[in-house]
Amino acid sequence: MPVDWRDTLRLGADLALLGILVTLASLPLLTAGAALSVGSLAIHRLLTAGRWPTAAECWTAFRARLVPGLAAGPLCVGAGWLILIDVAALRRGAVPGGPAMIVAVLLAAALGAGFAALVAGLAGTAETHAVCRARSLVAARPGVLFAATGVVVIAGVLAVVVHPVLVPVLAGFVLFAVHAVLVRVERRLPGDGGGASPGRLAQPAPLGPAQLLHPAQLEPAQLEPAPLRPAQLLQPAQPTHPGAATLPEIARTTR
């Protein structure tokens, strides 16, 4: 089905406005975690329900995420400041290592920024445990971290190239790109495939990345025991080992 260019233009304008709103809400620094989480929630609602959340829904989600995300902004700013100090010291020669150590520091910083982007993306699907779910997802699918890191690196290059006034616009597009990565991972989960070996049948299946992305969407059959059939309700339990007598046999021997 062909995509109308007007829909693409409308989506781009919406993402630009979202990036500006997220940037403005993040200026107090202590509200940065809640602002990014609500922006991620808005994109998740667009991708799953086909609509943007209302202002009342965003305000409710912002208040619910404000206290858990208080430390996110100061931690990111502190980490970025330490990285700048390290790079500056390495360039001056005050710290041994030279260009190789600068590359290593920048690579570690890029991976850390990619992990933070994954946390922001997963924060839109649930209010809590975004860091733990991101860590489990990276352990199960390491390629997700490299994809998110690529998104952050491209955004960083664009932030240097474009006019400074347009930098806040990039926040909405980065969140959308991270959600696109998560959606792609979720769609590829059913193809993990392969036959069921006896060892896999004997052990319960672990939580997959799809349940890490949506922890609340568990099947009812996974939460409740299987109901008994009418025949099992009417018949007595069978002996568990050879030689044990059933209740009807005991009744016949006592008559």
Offer a quick outline of the entry.
The protein has about 260 residues and is mainly alpha-helical.
Strand fraction equals under 5%
Radius of gyration: 26 Å
Instruction: Give the number of DSSP strands.
Output: 0
Helix content: 55-70%
What number is the mean pLDDT?
79
End-to-end C-alpha gap: 79 Å
Uncertain runs: 191-207, 217-242
What structural category characterises the helix and strand content?
A: mainly alpha
Instruction: Spell out the helices and strands N to C.
Output: HHHHHHHHHHHHH
What is the count of helical runs? 13
For the largest beta-sheet, the strand count, sense and barrel status come to:
none
Assign an overall shape. Answer: globular
What does this structure look like?
This protein is mostly helical and 255 residues long. The protein has a domain at 10-186. 69% of the residues lie in helices and 0% in strands. It has 13 helices and no strands. Helix 6 packs across helix 7. The longest helix has 26 residues, at 98-123. It is globular and about 55 Å long. The relative contact order is 0.10.
Secondary structure blueprint with pairings:
Layout: H1 5-26, H2 32-49, H3 55-66, H4 72-92, H5 98-123, H6 130-140, H7 142-161, H8 170-187, H9 198-202, H10 209-213, H11 220-223, H12 230-234, H13 247-254
Helix pairs in contact: 1-2, 1-8, 2-3, 2-5, 2-8, 4-5, 5-6, 5-7, 5-8, 6-7, 7-8
